[in-house]
Amino acid sequence: MPASAFRTLRPLILASGSPRRRAFLKSLSIAFAVLPASCAEPRPLPGEDPRDYTVRTAEAKARAVFQDVKVRLDRPAVLAADTTVILRQEGSAEILGKPRDKAEAVAMLSRLSGRSHQVVTACCLIVDGKVENFDDTAEVTFARWPLSVLEAYADSGDPLDKAGAYGIQDGGAFLVSGIRGSWSTVVGLPLNMVIERLLNAGVLAFNA
């Protein structure tokens, strides 16, 4: 592992099985363990804003893992995250989850083609029982692509495990013509905010 700009002052647990979130922390050579939350994700409440839902889901994941590790003598910190793709139009806000099949993936991609949508990533950090929620929103704009291109992308299988039916860090990068905000937020972890919170909470320190 290359030298890190940070040192870990206490154990850090990432409450997520996402390989993309793991890759972000590994890229900074931050020591952490992975313990995905085993609880079922909550469902959106009637009339609940998608941003509020995303924050609530991240906190539910963090709390579930913290319950499992709070008895440990080394007092680990727990970091959880949740990412939601939101299509806002005509005063409404719709969450676009993971497509069930190719047909639903193509339908989602067709709706996103040639327009902008939001991606919200919310995080929850629990340290010594203290809960801190934070989130970030980025705006992603798709280029306009013909149906045949969207179908070919869906055939690759890449959209099937991605919210909104695309992965900007994988084969879906070509779909995007612009991003306003943090790229890491779109991928699944607002890295600048995460590092700031970990430093402030005494989980990390700079290597002087």
Search tags:
6 helices; Maf protein; globular; two-stranded antiparallel sheet; alpha+beta; 208 residues
How would you describe what is shown here?
Strand 2, helix 1 and strand 3 form a beta-alpha-beta unit. Helix 3 crosses helix 4. The strands form two sheets. Strands 2, 3, 4, 5, 6, 7 and 8 form a seven-stranded mixed β-sheet that branches. Strands 1-9 form a two-stranded antiparallel sheet. The chain has one domain (6-206): Alpha-Beta Complex (Maf protein), CATH 3.90.950.10. The chain has six helices and nine strands; from the N terminus they run ββαβαββαββαβααβ. The two termini are 18 Å apart. The chain is 31% helix and 28% strand. The model has no long low-confidence stretch (mean pLDDT 93). It has helices at residues 19-27, 50-69, 102-112, 147-155, 183-187, 191-200, and strands at residues 6-8, 12-14, 33-34, 77-89, 92-96, 116-127, 130-142, 176-180, 204-206. The protein has 208 residues and is an alpha+beta fold.
What's the gist of this structure?
It contains six helices and nine strands; from the N terminus they run ββαβαββαββαβααβ.
Structural class call reads alpha+beta
**End-to-end C-alpha gap:** 18 Å
**Structurally, how many domains make up the residues?**
1
| SSE order, one letter for each helix or strand | EEHEHEEHEEHEHHE
